[in-house]
Design goal:
The chain is an alpha/beta fold and about 240 residues long. Helix content is about 35%, strand content about 25%.
Amino acid sequence: MNEPVICAEHLSKRYGDVVAVDDVSLRVAAGEVLGLLGANGAGKTTTVELIAGLRTPDRGRVTVAGLDPRRDRAALRQVLGVQLQQAQLHHALTVAELVGLYRSFYPDPRPAAELLDLVGLVDRRRTRFEKLSGGQQQRLSIALALVGRPRVVILDELTTGLDPHARRRVWAGVEALRDETVVLVSHAMDEVERLCDRVALLDGGRIVALGTPAELVARTGTADLEEAFVALTGRDLGREAAA
């Protein structure tokens, strides 16, 4: 059996009295899209920040493509692409300038035209970042995460707050990925069902269930993933998002 591209073992992280991540273990295979699904505060973002080396676990260990995210930072940047919830990009630079800047960080970057075509921004290449719509900014963030031809991509709440048309354009960009291993953080059931091979349900910093969407539905005897999530966690993401 091939070694997993991402291997997280017994990760734990506490902030004061708050346990953000509690004994989380995950293995993600090459080319797999794994969804991390949970309510706000479930530990999704902290989990991927630990995987990406942006935070140090209190306990446990993680490797990405055989690399330690904290010890092997320079090497990890060449194999890992990360799109976080809030893109901190220079608002005065154009789309083409931002792509060119990020391409300069890698020895063999993807062609700019290929990246912009992937996320549907060819006609916005001369537009400043501040003039892009929210959906266009999110799509640009995906393109920048893919500049260095990463083996592993982390996408954190990539369609939160987007209109239905923009969400579908972003989804199309993710579906165009063929060889990359993807970890997708989301609280959107339709997004997870459409894009993910397997789903890890997080609640209170712990993984309460792991499997394909169909397996989780079958395990709970429910009609769909949303009902399965409620059955497994006692939470209703739709109500919590509206609150």
